[in-house]
Design brief:
The structure is a single chain. This protein is of the alpha/beta class and 278 residues long. Helix content is 37%, strand content 20%. The protein is built from ten helices and nine strands. The strands form two sheets. A six-stranded parallel β-sheet has the order 1-4-3-2-5-6, sandwiched between helices. The chain has a three-stranded antiparallel β-sheet with strand order 7-8-9. The model has no long low-confidence stretch (mean pLDDT 98). Residues 25-27, 55, 58, 125, 128-129, 147, 150 line the site of pantoate.
């Protein structure tokens, strides 16, 4: 497995590879969800590349950039076991060298939900993802549906900027009790971990009502909100029932598919999750 740290090294390795590259961009501290992305990439491409980079540009000033879990050796061992061919692990000054001043400005799909609560987040995501795509030149890039808004923002960028690759979205990987896998789950203590199940429980209740024919967006939003509020350790940031493509908030009768998404604080950990109703 080649582990490279500069764009020049990355381009050099890429140029030696014949055939398609499937790319999995990550911020490291890998878990089974990332491994599933790697396996999809391996099944559909001649080579697999993974990036490990905790991107400072997508964290706000009071967010967890410094505390974000990191364990490069463990990550590399996991990727080696999966047969990954090359790993791009740049430092912040490789991605944002002195004098760097060009960012990608995402459009309307980046505005609500996470975009509203985390100003500048998707500008940082789009910018780093574009830079990583330029360095790795993949045929396909793999992202988890867990970051539902992120995949919509990235798909929009790829389309709008005519980037020559396919964005492949892979369903969220969950723990046995339904908690979505996330590197940030490591922040949760035992009580908080047990409480975190309220996110999926709320969405499953709404899904049940949806399957029974409930189509009122406000009723469905309330069902999720009440489940979260019933958990004493949970502090609700938002619950959204939105159009599953545009992410515009829905009220009243829902025509077509909808996306339930939410952010909830449990202790110091901010968790996000989503489910499509269709
Ligand atoms: O989803 C993530 O881990 C990050 O947002 C990404 C896509 C690797 C960009 O830093």
């Amino acid at each position: 497995m080649h582990v490279v740290h500069t764009v020049a090294e990355c381009r050099h390795i890429r140029a030696l590879l014949r055939g398609s590259v499937g790319f999995v961009p990550t911020m490291g501290y890998l878990h089974e969800g990332h491994m599933i992305l790697v396996r999809h990439a391996r099944a559909e491409n001649d080579h697999v590349a993974v990036s490990i980079f905790v991107n400072p540009a997508q964290f706000g000033p009071n967010e967890d950039f410094a505390a974000y879990p990191r364990d490069l050796n463990r990550d590399l061992a996991m990727l080696e076991r999966e047969g990954v061919g090359f790993v791009f692990n740049p430092s912040p000054d490789v991605v944002y060298p002195k004098g760097f001043e060009t960012y990608i400005v995402p459009g309307a799909v980046a505005e609500p939900l996470e975009g509203e609560r985390r100003p500048g987040h998707f500008r940082g995501v789009d910018t780093v993802v574009a830079k990583l795509f330029n360095a790795v030149q993949p045929a396909r890039a793999y992202f988890g549906e867990k970051d539902a808004q992120q995949v919509r923002v990235i798909k929009r960028m790829v389309k709008d900027l005519d980037m020559p690759l396919d964005v492949v979205v892979v369903p969220t990987v969950r723990e046995a009790d339904g908690l979505a896998m996330s590197s940030r789950n490591v922040y949760l203590n035992q009580r908080e971990r047990a409480a975190a199940v309220c996110l999926i429980n709320g969405m499953r209740l709404a899904q049940q009502r949806w399957q029974q024919g409930e189509r009122d967006a406000d009723t469905l939003r309330n069902i999720v909100e009440q489940t979260i509020r019933a958990e004493p350790l949970a502090i609700l940031d938002y619950v959204s029932i939105a159009d599953s493509e545009s992410l515009k908030e829905l009220h009243g009768h829902i025509e077509g598919a909808a996306l339930i998404s939410m952010a909830v604080r449990i202790g110091k950990t901010r968790l996000i999750d989503n489910m499509t109703l269709e």
